[in-house]
Design brief:
The protein is α/β, with parallel strands linked by helices. It folds into 2 domains: 6-63, Winged helix-like DNA-binding domain superfamily/Winged helix DNA-binding domain (Arc Repressor Mutant, subunit A, Orthogonal Bundle), CATH 1.10.10; 72-255, 3-Layer(aba) Sandwich (Rossmann fold), CATH 3.40.50.1360. The chain has helices spanning 6-20, 25-32, 36-48, 70-73, 78-88, 104-112, 126-135, 189-200, 239-247; strands at 22-24, 53-55, 58-60, 97-100, 120-123, 139-141, 146-148, 153-155, 168-173, 177-179, 183-186, 202-208, 220-223, 230-234, 251-255.
């Protein structure tokens, strides 16, 4: 592997932690073709963001009790999320009332919808709300609650706040995991509860996720299988996954992901 930039090293380190639970400084230095000093700086930075825990000679995973900082997640599988968003965007027409959750995939979808006219957007995502506020003419509705800093979302028992206000045509939701038995899943009970309230007010529900989520473990269901109109993911998904969902009547749309061009450049921080 040629030397990678800081972000690429962080992503590779986190993926290794997710699969192995532990990384070693010397192994990463050899893998990334950088000095051990550079690796230690990378690990220290990730620890400051609570994405790992430093130990002697390396780091260990902090577990999957949370999905991680928004700023890190928005760059993970970026090309796939952008392609998924572009494919799902034609579902939204001028004048629609839509719901977008706080997921990073829905943030990329929001970027595709900024030119829609007379749009009403219900979202618990602070980044998504700010994007529409600054760059569109959409009416933005943010349900009240408590700010969840890691996800930059508003969560809480919003109850029937949306009931009786008129139809929400379409709801778009990211996820941590999913199953044909339980539907769309999250690891945070607060996030799942808020998503469930929002989804319950939607006429149509769509799940948006990159293919890495297909094998992930999720704790809390927020949309039941029978309420899912379609799933949008990338072509890295397994054929067995697709056929399993189609067999129970849920359409799965897969999108090709452009191949990223990686430049081999030497790390200059040694």
């Amino acid at each position: 592997m040629g030397a990678l930039d800081e972000f690429a090293r962080e992503q590779a380190t986190l993926l290794e932690l997710e699969s192995a639970g532990r990384v070693k400084v010397n192994d990463l230095a050899q893998r990334f073709d950088v000095s051990t000093v550079t690796v230690r700086k990378d690990l220290d930075g990730l620890e400051r963001r609570s994405l790992l825990r430093r130990i002697r000679g390396g780091a260990v995973s902090v577990g999957n009790s949370d999905e991680g900082a928004w700023g890190m997640r928005v760059r993970h599988s970026q090309e796939a999320k952008q392609a998924i968003a572009q494919t799902a965007a034609p579902l939204v027409c001028d004048g629609d009332v839509i719901a977008l959750d706080s997921s990073t995939t829905c943030y990329y979808l929001a970027r595709e919808l900024l030119d829609r006219r007379n749009l009403v957007v219900i979202t618990n995502g602070m980044r998504t709300a700010t994007l529409f506020m600054e760059q569109s003419t959409a009416i933005v509705v943010v349900p009240g609650g408590v700010l969840r800093r890691s996800a930059e979302s508003m969560v809480g028992p919003i109850g029937d706040l949306l009931t009786g206000r008129g139809p929400i045509n379409k709801g778009f939701f990211g996820l941590v995991g999913l199953s044909t038995e339980l539907g769309l899943l999250d690891v945070s009970v607060d996030e799942a509860q808020t998503k469930s309230f929002i989804a319950g007010a939607c006429d149509h529900v769509y799940g948006l996720f990159d293919s890495s989520k297909s094998g992930r473990f999720g704790l809390h269901s927020f949309v039941a299988t029978e309420r899912i109109d379609a799933l949008y993911t990338d072509d890295g998904i397994s054929p067995g996954f697709v056929s399993g969902w189609i067999a129970i009547g849920v359409d799965v749309r897969t999108v090709a992901v452009p191949v990223a061009v990686v430049t081999d450049m030497r790390d200059g921080s040694e």
